[in-house]
Structures are given as C-alpha cells and as structure tokens.
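Subject: two folds for Thursday's group meeting

Dear M.,

Sorry for the delay on this. The cluster queue was jammed most of the week, so I only got both jobs back this morning. I'm pasting them in the order they finished. Each block is the input sequence followed by the predicted structure tokens. Could you check whether the formatting survives your parser before we put anything on slides? The first protein is the one we discussed after the seminar.
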Amino acid sequence: SALWLLGRRGVGLALPSGEVASFELPIDVRPGSRAVQDPRQRDCVFVLENGASRVWRLRLDRQGPCGAEELTSGGEPQRFRSSLGSRLLVAQLRGGASLIVTGTPGQGARTPWQFDLGARSWRRLPEAPMAILSSAAFVADGVLTIIGGWSKEHSCHGCVQRLPLEPLVEWAVAPAAPLPWRRPGAGCLHTSGATLVALGWMECQGTVGTPTFRLLRRNGAAQRAATSSSRLCSVAADGSFCQDSVFPLADSFEHIGELHCAGDDVVCIGRDHIQAYGVASKSWRSWPLPRELSHDSSNSWVKHCGSWALSWIAEL
C-alpha cells in the first residue's frame, strides 16, 4: 500500500483494492519532507524533515493513535538542510541499518549523508562526481547506486554512479552512455539483480536505447501532448539500458526516487497518476490518486516537486 504524510494528516491507499484511509499524525510533517518504511519494524516509517536533517520514526496505527519518536538530538537535526530533491533510503549494512540521503541544496547537490540508526548520528559521505539531487537511487549488496541527477548549476544528467559503502571507497561512474534525462526526477526498483527505471515525462520520439530515439524541443506545457511520454527502462550493471514499455499516462517522478513491487506488478506512483506494470503480462493498469491529497495549502513550487511525504508500505 501507499502512504502519504503532510501536516497532521496521513492518507493510505490499499492496492489493488483502491481503498483509501485517512488518519491523524502525532507530529506536523513539513511540506516537502521525505519518508521511507522501516524494514525492521514494518508498522513504522522514517521521516526526514524538509529543510533540516531531523529524523523521526512514526509508528502507524490506522485503528488508533499513532506514535512518534525523534531520532536526532543535540546538533544532529542541523547538520545539513535536506531539500525537495533529496532521496531517503534505508541501507541494511553489516555494521547495522542506516539511512542514506542523496544531496542537499546549493553546493551540496553532489553530497550524500549517512545516518547510523544505532549511534543516531550523521556522517558526510564522499562527494559524487556529478549531481545526485532529484535522482533515482537504491542500496544493494552494500553499494549505493544513483541514476541520474540534477543541480541548479548543471541541470540534468542521466549517468549511473556507484559508491561502495562496505568498505567505503571511491565513486565510480558507469561507462555506458547516459540515459535520456529531460527533467529532474525518476523512479527505480532493484530486485533479483535487475534494475528498472521510470523516466519522467519528456518530449521525444522513438524507442529509448535505439537509433530511432530522439528528444524533441522542451515544452513545459506539453505533458499531455502526443509527443510527451514516460518510459520504463531496464538498466544493466554497466549502465547500458533498453526500453521495456511506454507509460499509458505521462507523469513526473520528481517527488520520489523509487518504484515498488506488488506481486508481479511494478507500481509507479507519480505526481499525477498511479500506474502498475505487469512484468509477466506486459500490460498496465492504473488507479486515481486519493482525493484527499488535493487538500494541500503548500505553495505551487513545493506541490510541483512533491509536498506530501510518500512511502510504500509492504506487509503492514
């Protein structure tokens, strides 16, 4: 199921039923914050507060009061400023579980941070060769992989960068040509050794990864145009890629860097739509976003980049 958090409100969407539930939160979740499920306690989610490095653990209970615990103390909530383009990941490492944050505003667009959940402290990781804000990211086998990125100085890129965390060594950039990356943000899923990436909407023609593909002139008002589409692609270890399918509805993934597994489906929760791709059937189905998400007083830029903190909730 999917979970959205904003202010004192939580909204849950069960899939595939489409049932929506609303509930009250014990803390005020700031617009643009980011969330991820705690895999060790599946009724809990971590929340990274937008504009700070403050971390909360929320305990979910849709039948009664929810609980909250702040995990940062002393100077830890002010170590850096998270941003709308920061990604929040859980890394299960040999030394214990950690949270990974990809990028901060301005000069921190290439800087990841690691929060040790045992020690409850942050450490700054080595700077990436290229920007890692508004990227697609995952941690597998002790390696942080970041696909694409954006910075105000250099705009978008579609390169694949990797940082081994155990032991911590230098970044490496995959040798293949970069993915087409027209706008900030994409979603990704790494499972059973395979990596899928949902590219946010772009003006283009042809099939990604073939000589027929070409980007067209950018037009910010053309998301619903016939030449605008989002693409689901497979990415190999060397960074090479091929197109698996075209989304029925063009969408943005600027608000989250992940895709999700639900049985044989890959669930893609965009800014405007929820679409699921059946890997075996090679077919799509979709659900509307909960109407409750429209009750949002955030400014237009925060809404554009994702005002609600979104987390996928597995086996709750």
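Second protein, same layout:
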Amino acid sequence: SITFRSRQVGCEPKFAPVVVAPYTVTMSGSGYDRHITIFSPDGRLYQIEYAFKAARAPGLTSVAVRGDNSAVVITQKKVVDKLVDPDSVTHVFNITDKIGCVMTGLLTDSRAQVQRARQEASEFKFKYGYSIPCAVLAQRVADINQVYTQHAQMRTLGCHMILISVDDEAGPQVYKVDPAGLFYGYKATAAGVKEQEASNFLEKQFKEGEETKRDTTATVQLAIECLQTVLSADFKPQEVEVAVVEGTGKFKKLTDDQVEAHLTAIAERD
C-alpha cells in the first residue's frame, strides 16, 4: 500500500490519506508468456502454444491426401452470417497456377500468409525464370514463420498452411507449415480441431510397407471420407471445399456438382 500526504509548514494536511491497492500480475504462464522471446524454465514458449490454440479456435478441420498422380485438399466451409455471400467465404487459395493451399485457423492471418506466399513465388519466378517448386515455397514460408518467433515486435500467425502441387520431377506433393515454422512433406495430413482423429484415420489408410494405387477419384473420395468420419457428419456440397491438382494441370476447386457426385459415390459404396 502507498500513502500520499500533502504537508504545509504549520498547517494540518489538507487531503485525507489515499490508499492504493498493490498492483499484481496474474498470467496463465506465470509471467513467462508476456513476451514471445521469453523461454519458461522448462523450455516452453507460451506465445507459440497460444498461436496453435488460436489456429484451432474457428473449429474447422482440413485434410490433404497425396495420390499417384494428384493431390487433394478438403476443408469445412462455415458461413458466419446468413447475410454473408457464401461465394466470398473460402479457406482454399491458389498460390501459383499449379500450387494451391488450404488454410486452417484465423482467416485474417491466413489471408496475410497467402499474400506473402504469392509474393515469394512471384519474386522467385522473376529472379530464376521458372516457377517455384512446392518444397522451396514451403521452406520459405516456414522460415518466415520461424522469424516471427524471435522478434518481440512481431506476432506469430495463428494458422496452418497445407500446400499441394504436382512437381515435374518429384510428382504429387503435400507440405504442411505450422505457426512455429516447422514443415514436413506428407503422404496425407490434417490440421485443425480434429487433427489427431483425422491423422489416426489416415494412418490406417497408409500402412507402412503397403503401396496402394489411388487415382484422382479415389484420392478425392478418401479425403472426403476422412473428414466425414472424424466429424461424424454427412456433408452437403455447400458445406465443404475441395480442391485438386493432377498431372500437368492447374490447381482448381471442384464445383458443387462435382462434390455431389463424389458424395453420392461414397454413400452408394457404403
């Protein structure tokens, strides 16, 4: 407590004592989450962990699957308000003609990261004269994310980026970049609130030592079936976004009619 008094020579105090309550700081990270650059005694960066939680906050789940000659992404589509035009709501973006991504997490952060990825891809093509490979783009985005964990004036982005493409030399590619700047190539992966459940489902489909041939149709249907299983729901075409890149073609989103055809095929098969 602090007491302030006003004193004058030969006079009584004009102001009554003022008592100020002591200032206390209470934080979930015991103070170690006040800055992104501070490690806790057990080696944790709480702000990075909060970024991962922020990426799950919207409650969406995304899945990506790599086939023999194609790569597919699927995510939920939630329209927050009845007055919002559904065509303006998307989590699937193209980076170049042949590289696309699905973003899972805060939409504002997602759009900022997509814009930076497009800039990096454009600068690479201008400098070297050919389109940026998916692996190089994933590494570049991951490097940028990692820098955000080192400087106090920056904020880690609360989103996951899953990139897909078909490389001229390496074939179908799936890469996931997380808020901490870690990235890997995957046969199949997931992100979002049901990430662990989706990963468990996909692991059963990609058993070690077993090589299953999957064309584009089978790859798309596996991704849809995975999302349906982990969410325990049957989708309408308007409730999901599906995008695919195959062969030497371009990254493209499937129309509602195309998604409906795949949903019908899955239902008839089951």
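Two things I noticed about the second structure. The chain has six helices and twelve strands. Confidence is low (pLDDT under 50) at residues 1-7, 17-27.

Cheers,
T.
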